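User: Here's a structure from my thesis project, written as structure tokens. My advisor, Dr. K., wants to see whether a designed sequence matches the one we expressed. Can you design one independently, without my sequence as a hint?
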């Protein structure tokens, strides 16, 4: 008599649902947990983040050590990094999702008092004036001074993933995700007035020195970490950290970036 061997059923996908504090995000999480179940983030194979782009960044920071893929669904005000919200067919969407791998920036900042601070930024590291006085910055790339004095409201170094955020608002370039370049973008530059920024190889190390820090104090921000009255800030890409965002099939992050360049 011939024996039939049945294959064991595949283990269910372990999903952790997280939500911003917006009521619509919290309500969506309750419904999805009731429908699909949920595990603790540390045990998850994928995290479904419900909120806006800001919450997506928060979630990516929380998985910096585990590197768990994150699938965002828009329950916030801005959703460039998010997928459309749908309760139906989530497992099929996750199975067919495309991946976008991003690398954060490392910010090392020293204050006027000599204190050292470090942080990671997924979108950009930005320097901003703290008072009515314009900031004055000296900018070096890989140890060579490229701009002796920039008089401005500020300046930023943006990743490709962050190029469509604050960088774009400051008239910086939109960068394809696989281009391996960073955008160095001034914010309301006064002198030199015609300088519009630069595209740098992703392995570049950028140093900002604050000129006249007593008279013209400057803050430095890496995502949600802000350091006041900085004297020197160094920024570089952390290629050893890889974070994964998941996007619906046919709506890849690369396609969204390309479409943004033709938006009217």
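Assistant: Designed independently from the structure alone:
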């Amino acid at each position: 008599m011939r024996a039939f061997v049945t294959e064991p059923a595949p283990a269910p996908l372990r999903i952790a649902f997280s939500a911003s504090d917006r009521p619509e995000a919290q309500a969506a999480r309750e419904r999805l947990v009731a429908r699909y179940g949920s595990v603790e983030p540390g045990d998850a194979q994928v995290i479904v983040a419900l909120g806006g782009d800001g919450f997506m960044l928060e979630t990516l920071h929380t998985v910096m050590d585990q590197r768990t893929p994150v699938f965002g669904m828009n329950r916030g005000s801005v959703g460039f990094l998010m997928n459309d919200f749908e309760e139906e067919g989530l497992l099929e969407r996750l199975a067919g999702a495309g991946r976008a791998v991003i690398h954060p920036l490392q910010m090392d900042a020293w204050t006027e008092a000599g204190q050292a601070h470090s942080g990671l930024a997924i979108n950009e590291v930005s320097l901003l004036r703290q008072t009515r006085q314009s900031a004055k910055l000296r900018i070096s790339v890989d140890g060579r001074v490229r701009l002796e004095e920039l008089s401005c409201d500020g300046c930023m170094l943006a990743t490709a993933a962050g190029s469509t955020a604050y960088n774009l608002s400051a008239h910086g370039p939109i960068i394809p995700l696989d281009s391996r370049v960073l955008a160095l973008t001034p914010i309301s530059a006064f002198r030199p007035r015609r300088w519009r920024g630069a595209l740098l190889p992703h392995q570049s190390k950028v140093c900002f020195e604050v000129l006249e820090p007593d008279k013209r104090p400057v803050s430095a921000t890496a995502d949600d970490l802000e350091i006041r009255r900085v004297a020197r800030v160094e920024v570089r890409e952390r290629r050893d950290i890889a974070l994964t965002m998941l996007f619906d099939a046919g709506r890849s992050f690369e396609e969204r970036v390309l479409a943004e360049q033709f938006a009217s």
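When you compare it with your expressed construct, this may help: The chain has two domains: 15-102+242-260, 105-237.
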